[in-house]
Structures are given as C-alpha cells and as structure tokens.
Design goal:
single chain, 118 residues, GTP Cyclohydrolase I, domain 2, four-stranded antiparallel beta sheet, 4 helices, 4 strands, 39% strand
C-alpha cells in the first residue's frame, strides 16, 4: 500500500478539559499517514486518483475551528473518521500533540490507527 503523509501541521485551537483550556487557544501539532488504495496516481499522474493534501488540511482546519475537543483522543478519532469516510482512504495513522502543555514537556499526545492495511 502506498502512503502519503502530512507532517507538522500546526493549528491554534481551544482543546482540553480544564476551564482555562476552554478559553485560551493552544498550539497543537498533527502528523498524518494516509493509505492509498492501489497505485492509481502513481500510474496516471492525476490528482483525482489520490488524496489531495490541500483538501485534507483544509477540512482539518475547519474541524478545529468548528468544534471544541476535550480530549486529544477524541480529536484524533474525528480526524481519522474524516479521512476514512470523506477521502476514501483504507487506512490512516493520526498523531496529535499539544506543544509545551506542561512544564518541561516539549510535546504530549496520542497516536491512533484506523482502517486496514490489507
């Protein structure tokens, strides 16, 4: 299976369970690996035969603009669902991290995989 990736997508958003996190935007960093069904784009050279990076990043930006997520796990699940359902990917790995959320910690976060690599 071929895979495309989007690394170090940074967004400022309100995310978290504490009251201050609901008021103060935090920087998050996303990394995605998206499985492609077949070799269509490699053979055709056409954008319509792959997943468009710009569309994926745009949809993720809208997702975080429109919703507040209490947990990183829920945000990662929403991204995975979006990629699988709306972009027809058979498999996705989503890494989401808060940057400098705790003293002495550069990043903290979660990684999930959904779908099938078969």
């Amino acid at each position: 299976m071929d895979t495309i990736f989007i690394h170090e997508l940074r967004l400022e958003t309100k995310i978290g369970i504490y009251e201050w996190e609901k008021q103060v935007p935090q920087m998050i960093e996303l990394n995605l690996e998206i499985g492609l069904a077949g070799r269509h784009a490699a053979d055709s050279g056409k954008i319509g035969d792959t997943v468009d990076y710009a569309q994926v990043t745009g949809r993720i930006q809208h997702l975080f603009r429109d919703q507040h997520f209490a947990l990183l796990e829920r945000a990662a699940e929403a991204i995975a669902t979006l990629v699988l359902k709306d972009f027809g990917a058979p498999w996705v790995r989503v890494s989401i991290a808060k940057l400098a959320a705790l003293p002495g910690v550069k990043k903290l976060g979660v990684v999930i995989e959904r779908g099938s690599r078969a």
